[in-house]
Amino acid sequence: MTDHCPACGYVPEKRKGKPRSVPQNKRYFAMIRAAFSHWPEAHRFQPLTEERLRKWLQAKAGHAVVNTIDTDGMTGEQIVAALAAAIMVADPIHFVSATGKRLHIIQSMSINFDSLPHLAACALFDDVAQVIEAETGLKVDDIMPPIRERKPGKVETFAEVPL
User: Fold this and answer.
1) Neighbour order of strands in the sheet with 95-99
2) Domain count across the chain
3) Beta strands per DSSP E along 47-160
4) What is the pLDDT of residue 64?
């Protein structure tokens, strides 16, 4: 097997370090589903979807980009224009916060396999588990379903559909 394209000569970048683990990724999303199912009704943050909860938890764990708008000295129209511009370029799932005269647009960073290496994913997933425990008062191990009861993957689901 060659390390370049015979037609154009392109040489793909080699990934450094240990590759990400698919079972680890599946466990992470099962943890998010479990947290969503057990999310306290009285919590100040009420996610509408598992994805919104995941991105909020990741941002809370520090895996986020924060765009800050300092509104000191701005007119109302300038504040609205600056906020609108910041929201237009933000991820569709973002969070807005304010402290003093500053507005913050918070976006969770990507966790795709190409942008988050294995060890960084391990650290993030552990941090998210700690955030879940701090926010809910529940131990992640207690709310996780046994492996046999976890949601089947798409391959297993579609394999059951007769063609």
Assistant:
1) 64-70, 102-108, 95-99
2) 2
3) 64-70, 95-99, 102-108
4) 95
Distance CA 126, CA 60 (A): 13
Same domain? For 100 and 117 the reply is no
Residues of the chain with pLDDT under 70: 1-2, 14-17, 147-163
Shared-domain flag, residues 53 and 27:
yes
Domain assignment present for residue 75? The answer is yes
Note the pLDDT of residue 3: 73
Mean pLDDT, the chain, rounded, equals: 87
Alpha-carbon separation of residue 139 from 41, 115, 131, 132 (angstroms): 17, 29, 10, 8
DSSP E strand stretches across the chain: 64-70, 95-99, 102-108
Q: Are residues 59 and 115 in the same domain?
A: yes
Residue 2 lies in a domain: no
Note the pLDDT of residue 148. Answer: 59
Residue with tokens 């991105």, as numbered in its chain? 55
Q: Are residues 68 and 38 in the same domain?
A: no
Assess whether 25 and 103 both reside in one domain: no
Q: Of 20, 4, 31, 48, which is closest to residue 143 (Cα–Cα)?
A: 31
Domain housing 80: 64-108
